[in-house]
Write a structure and sequence with these properties.
This protein is of the alpha+beta class and 170 residues long. The chain has 5 helices and 8 strands; from the N terminus they run αααββββαββββα.
Length: 170
Amino acid sequence: MKQLVLYPLFVLLSFTSMGQGLNLSQLLKLQGMGKQEVALFLQEKGWVAKSDVEPSDAKMGKAVWAFNPEGEGADAWCILYYNGASPNRILYNTQGGPVFDKIRKHVKQREMAVLEEGEQIEGLDFVDAYTDYADSQFVARLYDYKQINYYGIKIFTKEDYHKAKETAKL
């Protein structure tokens, strides 16, 4: 009888974690989508829209989704930076483990070269270290946050990354 009770719970937890676990291929596709397409894709996977700040002349717009939000926190966050004048950027933050290990593995499988590594980013006290990887199309910035077992990846087009670096808006 215990097995019958535990099995549905295990299946439910498995499906819940599957929705949160975005992979590198999905993130690369999301970076190229419009805001409504990203919203639809994430909502179909159980993500919840949390906020949307329209772009201004000085800043990109910022649409935020959370997976399994609880109070001010969530199991994972997906943030789309957008405007009409430049390519979108996508940031995915999640707790470590298999999901982020797979992302790191796929970055290496794409043979993305290391562009830059650092330990601190001015104005971002919560970042412990970062590494920028590039291929011919994209740059993936992998973050290790000071919060234990919490990681992120931000996807840029290669051209947009270089523009953002010049203007100190990475």
